[in-house]
# Entry
Amino acid sequence: MTYVSLTPLDLALAAILLVVTAGLSLAFRLGLERTIAVSAVRMCVQLAAVALVLKLVFESGSSLATAAFALMMLAATAYEVGSRQERRFQGAASYLIGGAAPFVAGLIASVFAVSAIIGSEPWWSPRFLLPILGMVIGNALAGVTLVLDTITIAASRDRAAIEARLALGASRTDAMQDVLRRGLKAGMTPILSAMAVAGLVSVPGMMTGQILAGADPVDAMTYQVMILFLIAGATGIAVVLAGLAAVMLLTDDRHRLRLDRLTTVSKTE
# Structure
């Protein structure tokens, strides 16, 4: 199999479909033309910057450079999850939970994969650790966003029922059990759905990329299965960590519901 390198002209041809989408937005008066253009430019700039930085990190092979790039992922994850919340915790709590939960879970899964499955030496080899960490965190991020949204919205909606349980002597974990369970299920739904349709409705991204790069389809399949297992495991850990943290923040040591710790964010923000 031969690897086909894409030229700027090839990318410009692919962008024609994006121009068509902008045209449809204009025809139906959706007002998305500027958003489409900005998103496309931003994507290209971000991916080009990441590619250049990764090239430097790979060439250096430095553990410090690997750690610095991983910390950059942590900061971006924290901002992305925190900024997506419709109801945020006061202060930096939403950002701390949003960054820590997927990053810790992703790091556990990635280090396990690189050291125990792939067998890379050293285990922090940036060529293996960073791409896997990025894929795992990126997917766990969606689950954490959903679990936080579900729990904060459900706690606000079910306030009377939760406070009634607390008044009857239930502990804060017991009173919030249904809300927590609902949030955990919501957080796990995207990855479980992705696993269910992989290979039937869609060919996952990593498998597609490896095949286009000339890898044997069977080898590409085995790597994709490994990645999906890692993502599912990391997402499970991340949503549990984020869900428990949210429950603790929404209640206090005196077993009271503390919705005053939430702030509602306008969708235009």
